[in-house]
Design brief:
Radius of gyration: 11 Å
Order of helices and strands: HHHH
Low-confidence stretches: none
Strand content: under 5%
Structural class: mainly alpha
Length: about 60
């Protein structure tokens, strides 16, 4: 079940990536509901996913600080 939530979170983040505001809100929700090791995996996935998306990279800077 937990793995399904992780995969669902990635799907949602991909779908809302057109809006920085929505992306940020969904990311905050994900940080609250995922397990600690899943949050670590999500951060790795996000670094790769946002690598060529500068508008989303700014969100990543806020989350990691």
């Amino acid at each position: 079940m937990a793995r399904a939530m992780f995969e669902y979170t990635k799907t949602v983040l991909k779908k809302v990536s057109f809006s920085t505001e929505l992306f940020c809100k969904e990311l905050e929700k994900a940080m609250k509901r995922l397990l600690p090791y899943e949050v670590n995996e999500l951060m790795i996935w996000l670094q790769e996913y946002t690598h060529n998306k500068p508008e989303l990279s700014a969100v990543m800077i806020n989350i990691t600080n």
